[in-house]
Amino acid sequence: MSAVSSFVYAPPPDPPQIIHDDHEILIVNKQAGLLSVPGRGEDRADCLIERLRGAFPTVLLVHRLDLDTSGVMVFGLTPHAQRHLSRQFEQRRTKKTYLARLAGRLQPKTGRVDLPLAVDWPNRPRQKVDREAGRSAVTDWRVVRDSAEETRVRLSPITGRSHQLRVHMAEIGHPILGDPLYSPDPDRYPRLMLHAETLRFAHPDSGVQISFSAPAPF
How far is the C-alpha of 134 from the C-alpha of 129, rounded, in Å? Predict the structure, then answer.
């Protein structure tokens, strides 16, 4: 039985960790194992945006993190903020940095993966490299430290495709540890070792560049 077909949604019970809020934006450190938005079916109704709605009734979605990924997310608290932030993501004017643990020793110390991605339709939600029909996907990496067994690395996605970091790292032979979709032995680790560490963008009110971070829990 595949990891996808045997999946049971069991979100963590902890309340959301609020990093910052003001009259326009809300910054949250999402837990691994929690959906950003509701999934299909009543058993997947519990999610981050619904948990936030009690304290922030006007909260609006701007972007998502995968279920298995933890880290920094921004939400709009007004329609203006949502439009402004969404435009920044669409125009690639935000800067995102992720921390990951990869299988094996990644070399050289810095590099770029430029491989187009497309949905792997027979195996959804998996994505795949598709050089003919895929959409452009680019990821930069910088090694933090390494050993023969694994590499701790900072990943900077230039584009924002679904599962981009996970597919890119697996494709170059260094899958993210604990990945239930792209790692050969995900059960060796308690979670996907991928965390959205830093997010930088222009505040929708002032236009000033601001940055928010949350330390990786691994």
Answer: 7
